[in-house]
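User: Can you recover a sequence for this backbone? Please restate the input before giving your answer.

Assistant: Of course. Working from this structure:
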């Protein structure tokens, strides 16, 4: 993906935006991005009728957890605790969602900006934080997303970020 090389204007814009966020915003958005990427892998496998695809019901549950958090800006945990997105994260989440929707509608500029936004986010977070959030996802939602797809989501982010 290497959006930092392919789309330097968008990448710099988003790198600067992500770099200026509080740790609270970065932590909250990191959880969401890890979940989004993992859910993306689940949905892609299902639509592609992969042998590794989850059942219809489990695929829907993954979508429900992921999209519910994105839309409501809250992530209810199986423990009963609810992670509320900080106010500063909400406009960033909304902008990412808007770009993603435009990207799906074949808007090339939105595609470029969405991937630059994502890559910049991953770079600002760093591999250590990404790994911590995947541990969080495994702990709280491993039974929903499964070990295989959590590993797939992690591989996707590592590839996009040039992490080793």
């Amino acid at each position: 993906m290497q959006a930092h090389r392919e789309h330097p204007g968008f990448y710099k814009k988003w790198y600067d935006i992500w770099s200026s966020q509080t740790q609270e915003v970065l932590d909250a958005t990191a959880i969401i991005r890890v979940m989004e990427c993992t859910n993306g892998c689940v949905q892609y496998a299902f639509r592609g009728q992969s042998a590794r695809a989850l059942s219809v019901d489990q695929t829907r549950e993954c979508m429900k957890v992921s999209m519910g958090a994105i839309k409501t800006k809250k992530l209810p945990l199986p423990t009963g605790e609810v992670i509320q997105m900080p106010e500063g994260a909400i406009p960033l989440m909304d902008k990412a969602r808007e770009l993603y929707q435009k990207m799906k509608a074949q808007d090339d500029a939105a595609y470029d900006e969405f991937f630059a936004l994502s890559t910049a986010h991953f770079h600002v977070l760093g591999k250590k934080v990404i790994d911590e959030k995947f541990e969080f996802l495994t702990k709280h939602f491993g039974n929903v997303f499964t070990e295989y797809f959590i590993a797939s989501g992690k591989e996707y982010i590592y590839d996009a970020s040039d992490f080793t």
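That completes the design. Residues 3-161 form one domain.
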